[in-house]
Amino acid sequence: MKQDREFELLKANQLLEQIQELSKMGYWEVDLEAQEVFWSKETRAIHEVAPDYVPDLTGGINFYDELSKPIITEIFTKAVEKREKWDVKLGIITAKGNHKWVRATGKVHEDNGVVTRLFGIFQDITQEKIALDELLERGNSIAELNSNLEEQIKARNKELKKSKHKYQKLYDYAPEIMISVDLETNRIMECNLTTCSKLGFSREELIGLDIGEIYHEDSLPSIRKAYSKLKNSGNIEGERVLVNTKDNASIDVFLSAIAEKDEDGKVIRSNSILKDITRLVDVEKKLKVINLDLEKIVENRTSELRQANEELEEFTYIATHDLKSPLASIKGHLEIIRNEVGRSNIMADRSIHWIEDSIENAENKIQNIIDIAKIKNTKAEEYSKIDLFTLVNKVKEGLTTEQKSQVESFSINANEYIQVVSNKYYLETIINNLVSNAIKYRKHGEKVEINVDLSKKITGIQLIIRDNGLGIDMAKDKLKLFKMFHRIHDHVEGSGIGLYLSSKMVENLGGKMEVESELGRGTTFVITL
Predict the structure, then answer these.
(1) Are 94 and 48 in contact (CB under 8 A)?
(2) What tens digit of pLDDT does each residue of 328-361 get?
(3) Are residues 245 and 263 both part of a single domain?
(4) Same domain as 83, residue 6
(5) Which of 231, 246, 276 corresponds to the end of one domain?
(6) Between the chain's N and C termini, which has fewer beta carbons within 10 Å?
């Protein structure tokens, strides 16, 4: 609202200047004590002098033509001696040598019976004078012409008063508290009606009141500091303080102020806006209550997650020791039975082979469950520097004889030595899963080609694994690709958790995994770390 008020006042000043320009009417003033003369912009324009022209104490007497000089001299003398007003029409010769007709009106100002100032209006009526002469020639009276001119002036004055009244209403009924303070006496000089209504005082009670009287005692140190800053920087921005009402209630406000200076640049007055933030304070209190509730919820949830994590670790231990141990024992006994029975009994040999496959399948499923249980945020100490080329080559060399027999080619490409700080177990598991899937989901009757590219990008280290296998129907399986236990090709045996584990591990490493694939044309996995 402060900006709105300043904008309206600026418009009023602009309007006043426009009226002076349109009416060719300027203002002048002679300060007899200070021996100074002031001419408004339009007064200078009428005399056709430079904008920075400074008239001497004689004012514009030297500009009057020879017939008008004695008249204006006599008018000034009578004005000082007899306090007479004047309203005359005279001729002047401008600085550029042009002859103009002007209307000069004025009066004196007294202090303790002594004339201290002369001031008045100076209006270019050259066109009116020409028109008047023409009218006189046609028989029109001077009185009628003057009447019309007076009406125009009255209409303009009425418009100015209306504008001033409008801006006063904007000030009085602005929603914020507005106060002007004399910084020499610290007393309130002016306030708007909103100040009165919010604080419960009448305007008469507030005018002349020490500004400290309306601030809460807890805010006085901040106020003193703020006003001290105001005198140096010229403004106060958003100082949070408390003001007191007449019935001793307190209102939270943001104090903003701008300094007003005298001709010597000394700060003499502050114009302040105090924005009521009571509703904001209420919201802050409610947010504090909500935050306390959220902290309690988070605390409870953290406790629940901690307990669940402990249970998960216990489950992992059970799965590792209590489930895998019996399977190992069974495998040992099967080996004894095989040695005792031998291969003479075909049915027994087939049963033993079937049991061994079932045990291996069970061990794989148990290991998958353990791997899922291990997926959690990695600790800093679990990270190390890893040579990616060496790690991928380790996975390549670690393939089983059966897997290697199904691989046509396995290439690793890197244009430079690439190291990454990461979790080695996670990375090795991810690469092994994707390579194993490439072999497992190869085209029927064909060997698979695997290509691994390693490179540094702006976004991070990039690892790309390509194959020419069965491919994936992305339109059908894209949204479920990384779901647990989701299998894409049912004709190949699998647990459906390899891609789930790989995607979660990449996520826990702070990376991103993307897939490009087409049925019958192979699959490409792009991992960025």
Answers:
(1) yes
(2) 667 676 677 767 665 566 666 666 676 766 676 6
(3) yes
(4) yes
(5) 276
(6) N
